[in-house]
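notes to self, project folder thing:

trying the whole complex as one job this time. last attempt i did each chain seperately and stitching them together was a nightmare. two parts in total, labels are on each line so i dont mix them up again. if this works i'll redo the older ones the same way
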Amino acid sequence: MKIQILKEIIQKKSSKEKFAVLTNLINGNSEIFEFGKFLSKDFESSKKEIENYHYLKKNGVIDGTQIFIQNYIKPIEVIIVGAVHICQYLVDLFKNLDFEVKIIDPRKYFITTERFPNIEIINGWPEEILKKLQTNSNNALITLTHDPKIDDPALRHALKNKFFYIGALGSKKTHIKRCERLKEAGFSEKEIDSIHGPIGIKLGGKSAPEIALSIVAQLVSETHKL
Amino acid sequence: MNKQLKRTVLEQANVWIESNQKVVLARVIHTWGSSPCPTGSSMIINEKGEFFGSVSGGCVESNVIAECLELIKNNNLFKQIKFNVSDENAWDVGLACGGEIKIFIEQINS
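result (full assembly):
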């Protein structure tokens, strides 16, 4: 592989583009593939199959050819509302997983770079911040404040924009009340049921790092259902 | 996030290349049965034999490293290597999980 291809992959990955790297296993040539891009003669005869594998995000040697395709997909963006204690452990656990993380909290004393170094933090109300971000089904939302005036607008935004994962921290009682408010706001039962509440898989633990682990486990498991 | 904390395999390859080291990229291109690392998993090896990443969760790494060093020594550009259960080498290095993997190794060159 040429150095310039390696550098291009690094650059494209950091700008979160969707692309694939093709390698001709007979002569060792590699090139970058994107939908609609012109292919060199090493690959052009298998254009249809390449497009199909890329569409299906399938890595491997394309059937009947000597072409290896490796797909790079956009990482999932996780938005966390509430820069609380659990959030610090969440950030730690996310470090080794391929997610992009943003934290939103309107409370200045929670959302500081001292508490959250090396991570994107946004001080403001979720309602206003989320409107400015581009969000879609590639997003996940985790709400941690269990304060309706902070969490609810974020939940409404996530439901409207079809986030693939929505989880809300809070007891069963809190969650029942939350569901009632969302029903009043006009969301269907199916939409409301898609919220993971109380958030996380059942581990039995109640400490902040244990809750964080149960949330990450649930999110990862949902990712693999996509 | 994590940019400063987590360097990917390819980013590490770039760091080695910029310090004028020869680097070989190894990628899993095909798997059968129960192999520990999925297709697309990658590892890099420099001329000193230092490595980063993984192609088999530890089972055949030492063989892959030896093959990569051989590639640099003979100044070959690329090679395909296959490990499977019936392969004596694979047993030696411990691919006992019943899987088979095919690995493509290639020099990063200008």
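what i see at first glance: The CA atoms of residues 26 and 105 of chain B lie 4 Å apart.
need to look closer tmrw
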